[in-house]
Amino acid sequence: MLIVLAAIAAWPLARTIWFGLTDASLDNLDAAKFVGFRNYFHVLTLESGRRYMSGLLVDPLWWAAVWNTLKFAAISVFFETVFGTIIALVLNAEFRGRGIVRAAVLVPWAVPTIVSAKMWAWMLNDQFGILNDLLMRLGILSHPVAWTASPDTALAAVLIVDIWKSTPFMALLILAGLQMLPADIYEAARVDGVHPVKVFWKITLPLIRPAMLVAMIFRTLDALRVFDLIYVLTPDNEHTQTMSVFARQNLFYFDKFAYGSAASTLLFLVIALVTILFIRLGHLNPEERR
Amino acid sequence: MRVPRPIRVVAFYLLVAGIVLESVFPFYYAVVTSFKSGQAIFHVDYWPSSFSLANYVSVLGTGHFARNILNSLIVAAATVALSLSLGVTASYALARIRFRGRRLLLFTILSVSMFPQVAVLAGLFEMVSAFRLYNSLWSLVFAYLIFTLPFTIWVLAAFMRDLPTGIEEAAIMDGASPFAIVTRIFIPMLWPAMVTTGLLAFIAAWNEFLFALTFISTDTQRTVPVAIALLSGASSFEVPWGRIMAASVIVTVPLIVLVLVFQRRIVAGLTAGGVKG
Asked: CA distances (Å), A209 to each of A91, A169, A189, A200, B206, in order?
């Protein structure tokens, strides 16, 4: 098992890092030569004395991708946590038809990412989309918006779809946390006449914090490596291009295999850093994490 | 100040209705669109107004979509079989045998499941080419183990820790080999957990996009997510929305049915493994 994991994870990762330090291109993988950190940063001095800087660290497209990824991750995880908590609280209450509601909430999670991207691409369509139609009927919009194409709304469009799809996951993990809470605290709070809002902030929230944190970690790491949704919903749009999309475009489209590998390596480092940070901050223990 | 009870009840049910509507509407709309044909597609309808199977006939009858579904089934089934058989033995070791570095190993396995897939894409591409697996379904089965295996081990180990050790000790006293313990005792006791992890691994393999897009180059070898993403019309300016929605409904309905049937198991597996489909 360890050998399999090493073969499918450690070795490819090591090779990716290595390719990031070479001049590899798609058709000469074997002949790749070591070039040091040239893909990351390189100063080229011409004979005339003019100097050019190249490499990822001075590539505006790369920084745009980094910025897009961080914005995407922060906003989507924030809204998924808020909506996830609301849905979890609703599902935790006793009411008629709870089973049906719970099943309905699972639907977005069950829809494959590509399918949800396509479904929403259709709903967000500028001419025939139902969203524009709805918003215009309600008088919110005066003319149709090209959601996925215009620079101002492309990121919003991607965020809407991701939040729609991933909130159930957040809700389920938070609901699991809610269901482990002891009933007697609530009994006591009710007897003392504490206001429900205060109960939520003072009792519920602190108690479900661990479950919430775990859910947020998973979602953050997922959001940082997002690829398929953006690739399908807003292709070739530099306003939503994330680090993963940037890396893959360079690897396989622009024939800059080494450059793409270097970008992948940086993304890996970012995610590793975030993971370590979360584990330190959250004092997580894999043996207790349930 | 307290809000009167009837108002609270109404507000609560409105919230519930909003949640249900928001969750189900996009898929409902995809179904409605998939049954439209011709120009009807370009009218926004909130209720089903026409019923035509033309899109389904066209997506299944022309092109390679039926073949793509078969590919996805093969890949997902093989991935599940491999990750379950490898996962059971590994999680047995991790859950039952105390050894140095076990915690570190658990963390390593967990961190593999957090890998950005792009980070291994270049290296995997080289391996896939070196083994001449490029454009073969096996390259995908192999690549998918990278996320199904850590998750399978993780969840199975969690379930296994909760099983009583008494039966196992009795078996050891009777001289059963570790292999016999795993196959005769654990697998019968673990089958609910295996159904859960198998199902989640199946869904993950069924939905995967990045590797399937990169390692497969011909239409007949593609899996369904890539096939849907690349589905195009007669010209590049005409997007066949009706057929795309029909294809989407075809690949999604079985998943929704599976998820609803195994709802409780899946929720248990998700909370134990914290994985996203």
From this structure: 18, 16, 19, 12, 33
- d(CA A177, CA A289) in angstroms, rounded, equals 11
CB B122 within 8 A of CB A39: no
Structure-token match 């491999």, residue found = B82
Whether A186 contacts chain B with CB within 8 A: no
Within 13 Å and on the Cβ side, how many CA atoms surround A170?
A: 28
- Residue A171: other Cβ atoms inside 10 A: 30
SS (H, E, C) chain A: CHHHHHHHHHHHHHHHHHHCCECCCHHHHHHCCECHHHHCCEEEECCCCCEEEECHHHCHHHHHHHHHHHHHHHHHHHHHHHHHHHHHHHHHCCCCCHHHHHHHHHHHHHCCHHHHHHHHHHHCCCCCCHHHHHHHHCCCCCCCCCCCCCHHHHHHHHHHHHHHHHHHHHHHHHHHHHHCCCHHHHHHHHHCCCCHHHHHHHHHHHHHHHHHHHHHHHHHHHHHCCCHHHHHHCCCCCCCCCHHHHHHHHHHHCCCHHHHHHHHHHHHHHHHHHHHHHHHHHCCCCCCCC
pLDDT of residue B238: 72
pLDDT 10s digits, B95-123? 777 777 777 777 777 777 777 888 888 88
Nearest to B120 by CA among A225, A261, A256: A261
Window 207-266 of B: residues touching A by CB (8 A cutoff) are: 207, 209-210, 213-214, 224-226, 228-229, 241, 244-245, 248, 251-252, 255-256, 258-260, 263, 266
Closest chain B residue by Cα to residue A266? B119
The dihedral sign for the CA sequence B196, B198, B203, B208: positive
Q: Which residue in B has a C-alpha nearest to residue A25's C-alpha?
A: B122
Q: What confidence tens digit (pLDDT) does each residue in B24-77 have?
A: 999 999 999 899 887 777 777 787 877 888 889 888 887 888 999 999 999 999
Chain B positions touching A104 (Cβ under 8 A) are: 19-20, 23-24
Query: What predicted TM-score, i.e. pTM, was given to this entire model?
Result: 0.87
Residue in B214, B228, B227 with CA at minimum distance from that of residue B133 = B214
